[in-house]
Design brief:
With 502 residues, the protein is α/β, with parallel strands linked by helices. Helices cover 33% and strands 21% of the residues. It is built from 15 helices and 23 strands. The strands form 7 sheets. It has a 6-stranded parallel beta sheet, sandwiched between helices. A 5-stranded mixed barrel has the order 19-20-21-23-22. It has a 3-stranded parallel beta sheet with strand order 11-14-15, with helices on both faces. Helix 14 links the parallel strand 17 and strand 18. Helix 14 runs parallel beside helix 15. The longest helix has 24 residues. The termini are far apart. Bound molecules: 5'-deoxyadenosine and iron/sulfur cluster.
Length: 502
């Protein structure tokens, strides 16, 4: 077992990417190189596994200090934010609710679209004045944005208020990095462009008390041409099955009702460990822990295996809902996106799922305005949406990401056309979602109550087995329980109801 805080190992491993960036050469940074992320042929074996250990020096560093983490993006980022919080609390930091109060402010970022990045830069920009009132405040940026060269260049040039940057592969180094920033007063940028070991036994502060996110794998090898994730999250690495099961057993012992398995492409689970049909086998083992609910995100049509649907049929605690991003209905666009399937093969997958589980809830992701997308190609997406009758879909305007193959294609669809297509698509999706939701009125659904609704504290909210958002009334004390709810009204994106125990 390797000692994770043994810095010389890392400096040897990453010495090639150390640069003197500042004019006076007093600060040395480890900077990202997206090309190294992509060049992964030489390292496609199973990752080694290392256990997290915190140095005694870092242990009390946070005593009497407060932290605030702002997380953007997907559930994988939310789970990373929970690990960051766990590490900070082990160091003695206490969580607080505002940027003004915080001694340490962490931006746990997402790079998937430009708009998300612009928001982060806007917020960091506005913190200059907060920091002026609170000079000891430490501002830190981590997550996917940190892995991009263009972001680091911008920070070095225009954001002197950022004290610490680290990437997705060395989040576990937070104690040592903070030691440098806090004790040695060194501005620190440490972003690895290779994944390194899988780190287990990381502390965690869960953000919800009824369900827990569980990474089953990291990274993505799919290289869809529009997507930055394979560069920011590295190659696919699967956690050992026993570590995943242990995490689920801990959730169960803590009284959590649901485990949400996470990976950019969960169907590829176990490939690097040379497992045969690894994801289905893992899913079955997770179901056998007896936890009440299991969900998983995100599936990819290319690696999809029929056995996964069979497992959903066999185990009642695997929820019957599937998120299967399709992105486009046009074969030509799918080809240029490097998705590895066609409109027809996606429809066949859909047909198989519906034939095996007729009431499966089916959701997707869609992109409009990909380079050179014609009206006919956009129409093919609408036709596919009509065919699949998605319960819900996340729809996006294509956003060019520096360093990806699509960013080298001409982004030739005018913004007005992109927006118009998005509006047409959203109207269609919303009509279908409303129609599907109407079918639930009068039925009783089992809802995992997450607590009061964010919009109205007089009603509870939670998700049904079918993954429908349900707002409902009921007596006090239902939080974290699975409740039978009679559905009384439907909307496009939620249902209303009354707890049957009322
Ligand atoms: N532009 C727009 N949408 C994107 N997505 C990923 N990359 C981009 C991009 N460059 C969307 C895809 C993916 C979801 C998580 O984000 O639909 O499935
Ligand atoms: Fe991005 Fe494609 Fe990987 Fe999803 S499968 S994370 S869209 S590269």
């Amino acid at each position: 077992m390797k000692e994770p805080v043994a810095q010389p190992v890392f400096f040897m491993r990453f010495s090639a990417i150390m640069f003197d960036m500042m004019k006076n050469n007093t600060e040395r940074y480890i900077l990202p190189e997206m090309r190294r992320e992509a060049n992964r042929a030489s390292r496609n074996t199973a990752s080694e596994c290392t256990r997290f250990v915190m140095s005694a020096e870092a242990e009390n560093l946070g005593r009497g200090k407060k932290y605030y983490i702002r997380t953007y993006g997907c559930q994988a980022n939310v789970r990373d934010g929970e690990t960051l919080a766990g590490i900070l609390e082990l160091m003695g930091f206490e969580m607080c609710e505002s940027t003004e109060e915080a001694d340490l402010l962490i931006f746990n970022t997402c790079a998937i679209r430009q708009a998300a990045e612009d928001r982060v830069f806007g917020e960091i920009g506005s913190l200059k004045s907060v920091k002026a009132r609170h000079p000891g405040q430490i501002i830190c940026l981590c997550g996917c944005m940190a892995q991009e060269e263009v972001v680091i260049e911008k920070i070095l040039k225009s954001y002197p208020q950022v004290d610490l940057v680290f990437g997705t592969h060395n989040l576990w180094r937070l104690p040592e990095l903070l030691l440098k920033v806090m004790s040695k007063k060194e501005r620190t940028i440490e972003v690895y462009s290779e994944e390194g070991d899988l780190i287990e036994d990381l502390p965690v502060r869960r953000s919800t008390s009824c369900k827990g996110f569980v990474h089953i794998m990291y990274g993505c090898d799919k290289f869809c041409t529009y997507c930055i994730v394979p560069y920011t999250r590295g190659r696919e690495r699967s956690r050992r099955k026993e570590d995943i099961i242990e995490e689920i057993m801990t959730l169960k012992q803590q009284g959590m009702k649901e485990a949400v398995l996470l990976g950019q492409n969960v169907n590829a689970y176990g490939k690097d460990l040379k497992m045969e049909d690894g994801f289905t086998s893992l899913l079955e083992s997770c179901a056998e822990t007896g936890i009440e609910r299991i969900r998983f995100y995100t599936s990819h049509p290319r690696d999809y295996s029929s056995t996964t649907i069979d497992a959903m049929v066999k185990y009642p605690n695997i929820m019957r809902s599937l998120h299967l991003p399709v992105q486009s209905g046009s074969d030509e666009i799918l080809k240029r996106m490097n998705r590895g399937y066609t409109n027809d093969s996606y429809r066949r997958l859909y047909d198989e799922m519906r034939s095996k589980i007729s009431d499966i809830t089916f959701t997707t992701d869609l992109i409009v305005g990909f380079p050179s997308e014609t009206d006919e190609q956009f129409q093919a997406t609408l036709d596919l949406v009509d065919y699949c009758q998605f319960d819900m879909a996340y729809s996006f305007v294509y956003s060019p990401r520096a360093g990806t193959p699509a960013a080298r294609m001409e982004d030739n669809i005018p913004l007005s056309v992109k927006k118009e297509r998005l509006q047409i698509l959203n109207d269609r999706l919303s009509d279908i979602a409303a129609k599907r939701n109407r079918e639930y009125v009068g039925r009783t659904l089992k809802v995992l109550c997450e607590g009061p609704s964010k919009k109205n504290e007089n009603v509870y909210s939670g998700y049904s087995e079918e993954n429908k958002l349900v707002n409902f009334t009921g007596p006090a004390g239902l939080k974290d329980q699975i409740i039978e709810v009679k559905i009384t009204e439907s909307h496009s994106f939620s249902l209303d109801g009354t707890a049957s125990c009322e």
